[in-house]
């Protein structure tokens, strides 16, 4: 693409050097520069892209986008000065790939918990309705029937536009995308045209990155602030910050709730480990999903489908055939009658939700054993909170390792233990080895007891000192439960 077309609708402060070169690729990592590429000098949290301009030119970059022009300008290189290189990168990527987000209905879901579930549910609902779609989630990227391994919750903006362009090329009409707070803060959604934005909930998470809850909230809200007037914003008004998301949005506002009056209202009529009988908008239907948090997820997916123009009867029919999302309230039952629940819950709010959902279902004759830990090199403040919640709401809590990363697992466990209330000291034990923790839970459990494995969900690895070791909660349960029955 020639530079002039690439800069369409992008505010530029100054251009110097060659007038209108042909650009082969857009790069923001100087190490990936290729012949005739355009390098965008983005200021990151660790390093400043301006320091690598010469390195990018040495590898073949023919044009440079930057906020501050270098002292020495090469006459054969085109320099484009802009106010904000990070935001410009998104606009450039969108132009380079033919503005794919304008050629399909792009739906973004943000919030602390539920993003993966809602986007995956939407992908499956719309597939059941007969439409080809793309899915960009923590678990995987899917374009129609093609599955691509996922690297980030929200990919970098160049990769994002590549994926969306491929979706357009493969005749997809919709794209469902998780929008993380990191992605919003780092302008990875810049230049994208969202038709619908959905908010799940917000609670204590990522404070290692955002530093304060106020900053985290502000970042999430920015996604809605930047929607265009033709978009639709759908928020959960049962969440105390649900209405905050809509305060400055130009988009059409819609709400959903279980507890309060809303545009989309749902009720749980019956629930057990096999599923739930629900009522949405006066219509009853059965789903194999279970847990109150899943009712919120389904209700948001339902609202998105209605706002996309589908008939409620068709949507509910599509919902009733859905299978559980991998690693989200995924249930197994051993030959000996022990129930296992595998869930990605790794925040205080998510852990409390999953425990409340299980406690709502169980008759209290069964014991609830919770195995959980906290990730290393992440938010320390949530650790004692999770220790308090798990021991308060379980018969027994086994504190173990999640992804310790570069931290000492024993130190992480100690921080979790600090939140355990004195009256619950007898209700927990600590086993740093996750496999040993699962083994102990199975030995302790009796028929009908429930073992919750929280924190890892779909993940099939444990990250220890920078190395990812294969570890899958579901595989481990199947192996150990089988051993127990011998």
From TrEMBL:
Name of this chain's protein: UDP-N-acetylmuramoyl-L-alanyl-D-glutamate--2,6-diaminopimelate ligase
Native source species: Kaistella yananensis
Annotated compartments: Cytoplasm
Pfam short name (any one): Mur_ligase_M
Gene3D superfamilies: Mur ligase, C-terminal domain (3.90.190.20), Mur-like, catalytic domain (3.40.1190.10), MurE/MurF, N-terminal domain (3.40.1390.10)
Keyword set, alphabetical order: ATP-binding, Cell cycle, Cell division, Cell shape, Cell wall biogenesis/degradation, Cytoplasm, Ligase, Magnesium, Nucleotide-binding, Peptidoglycan synthesis
Binding of meso-2,6-diaminopimelate, residues: 378, 402-405, 455, 459
Requisite cofactors: Mg(2+)
One annotated GO molecular function: UDP-N-acetylmuramoylalanyl-D-glutamate-2,6-diaminopimelate ligase activity
Biological role stated in the UniProt entry: Catalyzes the addition of meso-diaminopimelic acid to the nucleotide precursor UDP-N-acetylmuramoyl-L-alanyl-D-glutamate (UMAG) in the biosynthesis of bacterial cell-wall peptidoglycan.
Domain Mur ligase N-terminal catalytic: 23-97
Cleavable signal peptide: none
């Amino acid at each position: 693409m020639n530079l002039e077309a690439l800069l369409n609708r992008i505010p530029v402060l100054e251009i110097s050097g060659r007038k209108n070169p042909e650009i082969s690729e857009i790069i923001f990592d100087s190490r990936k520069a290729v012949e005739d590429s355009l390098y965008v000098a983005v200021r990151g949290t660790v390093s400043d892209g301006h320091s690598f301009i010469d390195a990018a030119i040495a590898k073949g970059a023919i044009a440079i986008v930057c906020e501050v022009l270098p002292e020495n300008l090469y006459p054969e290189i085109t320099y484009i000065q802009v106010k904000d290189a990070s935001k410009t990168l998104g606009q450039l990527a969108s132009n380079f790939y033919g503005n794919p987000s304008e050629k399909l209905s792009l739906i973004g879901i943000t919030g602390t918990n539920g993003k993966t579930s809602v986007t995956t549910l939407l992908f499956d609902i719309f597939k059941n309705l007969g439409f080809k779609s793309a899915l960009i989630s923590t678990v995987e990227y899917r374009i129609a029937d093609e599955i691509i391994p996922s690297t980030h919750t929200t990919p970098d903006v160049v990769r994002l536009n590549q994926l969306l362009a491929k979706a357009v090329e493969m005749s997809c009409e919709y794209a469902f995308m998780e929008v993380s707070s990191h992605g919003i803060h780092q302008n990875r959604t810049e230049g994208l045209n969202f038709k619908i934005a959905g908010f799940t909930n917000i609670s204590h998470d990522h404070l290692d990155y955002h530093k304060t809850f106020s900053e985290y909230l502000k970042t999430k809200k920015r996604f809605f602030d930047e929607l265009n007037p033709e978009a639709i914003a759908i928020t959960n008004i049962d969440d105390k910050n649900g209405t905050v998301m809509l305060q400055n949005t130009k988009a059409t506002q819609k709400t959903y709730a279980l507890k309060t009056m809303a545009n989309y209202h749902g009720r749980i009529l019956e629930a057990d480990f096999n599923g739930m009988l629900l009522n949405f908008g006066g219509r009853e239907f059965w789903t194999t999903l279970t847990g109150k948090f899943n009712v919120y997820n389904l209700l948001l997916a339902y609202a998105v489908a209605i706002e996309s123009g589908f008939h409620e009867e068709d949507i509910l029919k599509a919902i009733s055939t859905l299978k559980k999302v991998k690693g989200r309230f995924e249930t197994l039952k051993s030959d000996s009658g022990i129930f296992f629940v595998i869930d990605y819950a790794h925040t205080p709010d998510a852990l409390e939700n999953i425990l409340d959902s299980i406690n709502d279902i169980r008759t209290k004759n069964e014991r609830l054993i919770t195995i959980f830990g906290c990730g290393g090199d992440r938010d320390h403040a949530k650790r004692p909170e999770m220790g308090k919640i798990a021991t308060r709401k379980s018969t027994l809590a086994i504190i173990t390792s999640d992804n310790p990363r570069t931290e000492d697992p024993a130190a992480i466990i100690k921080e979790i233990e600090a939140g355990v209330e004195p009256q619950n000291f007898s209700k927990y034990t600590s086993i740093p080895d996750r496999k040993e923790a699962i083994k102990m839970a199975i030995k302790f459990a009796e028929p009908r007891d429930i073992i919750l494995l929280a924190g890892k969900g779909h993940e099939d690895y444990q990250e220890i000192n920078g190395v990812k070791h294969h570890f899958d909660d579901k595989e481990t349960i199947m192996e150990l439960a089988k051993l127990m029955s011998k």
